[in-house]
Amino acid sequence: MTVAVSKPKRKTAKKRNNSKDQLLNAASTILTERNAIDISLSDIAEASGLNSALIKYHFGNKEGLLLALVERDAASTLGLLDQLLAMDVSPIQKVRLHVAGVVKTYAKVPYLNRLIHTLMDSKDPIVAEEMVNFFVKPLLESQTKILDEGLQAGIFHKIDPMMFYYSVIGACDYIFYARHSRKIVTGNSELTPEIRDKYINFVADTILKTLCIDSNTSIKT
Amino acid sequence: MTVAVSKPKRKTAKKRNNSKDQLLNAASTILTERNAIDISLSDIAEASGLNSALIKYHFGNKEGLLLALVERDAASTLGLLDQLLAMDVSPIQKVRLHVAGVVKTYAKVPYLNRLIHTLMDSKDPIVAEEMVNFFVKPLLESQTKILDEGLQAGIFHKIDPMMFYYSVIGACDYIFYARHSRKIVTGNSELTPEIRDKYINFVADTILKTLCIDSNTSIKT
């Protein structure tokens, strides 16, 4: 009897999770295709093939769904950032790996940065605070730790973390955001893994030339 | 008689221009306040105190109005870029002045870059092409000319204009776009002219360290 009762329960829970994932996947696909962050409940319902009432059931409202999407999409990246900080490599290598991580995240989820900033502009202060605590603070704190490590080791100049934050995140994001200019800029709208990796090296080299006291170190390591 | 007839005509023409400007100013204010590019005809009508039929009369539709807004907001900047190219200063100084121009434009019109990219994603190929021809191509061509000048003068390394374009424009724009993170990042949500100028120097110094063959030159000039 116990088995007979529990089986349908598991199935229902699985089905519920599936519809949650389906809604998140549909929103993600639409945001990527449109390269914009304006999306309606009916867009998501239509693309997922599910009733929009399920959005309310799982996420409360559209903002709740977008919040869940950001948390899903950014979680692995933020996890990698913690691992990076704990790694036994030089601060220079940490900057390189960090730039690579940011670029690869935006390559995979090109709407992520704009979605985060849209949610930070939310009229609901809880949503805005959630984004700050979930994304901006950990990112800024991790970057500051890497900069401090390099400073303590006598490898880096003292640099304003704010300048580092905006210039690195802005540069890493823009190549994916401005996708419709890519065909004009690069002659090809596809951002191949080769161009992506070349860009990672360019951004990392540029910032390391400013950071490193000995400019040769930045290239060697 | 001629005078009596022509006077009201001039008045009507002036009034027409006024309502056009009023609509553009209203859209500009809303976009700045919201830090977003989703805006409705009724939002603009309400904020301008004018009937939304006037939007159709002056601009055809919402996209037409946004296109006119971009052209109004970016025209002076693009004009300055032409002047910059013709100036008798070193390529290094041109890079510095260019970065300053871009940062100051986004400081003044923080929605401009996103609006341009939204219009480049337009379903209407004429709108998209207009943005490319009006903004991306002139900007990219001017940057390429400055890079070439430095290369010919034996001052700059050979650098991929695409890498230059995305990293510089992305860095310059992001500090204004991500305004809701500024309080966390800088402790103050106001971006003072002092911070703006410090950021201009940081971005210019960083890119010039990568560009210049002799790293000392980049700082001296």
Automatic annotation (TrEMBL), chains A, B:
Residues 40-59 bind DNA. It comes from the Bacteria. PROSITE patterns: HTH_TETR_2. The keyword Phosphoprotein does not apply. Keywords: DNA-binding, Transcription, Transcription regulation. InterPro entries: Homeodomain-like_sf (IPR009057), HTH-type_TetR-like_transc_reg (IPR050109), HTH_TetR (IPR001647), Tet_transcr_reg_TetR-rel_C_sf (IPR036271), TetR_C (IPR011075). The keyword Protein biosynthesis does not apply. Residues 17-77 form the HTH tetR-type domain. SUPFAM superfamilies: Homeodomain-like, Tetracyclin repressor-like, C-terminal domain. Gene3D superfamilies: Tetracycline Repressor, domain 2. One of its GO terms (molecular function) is DNA binding. This is TetR family transcriptional regulator.
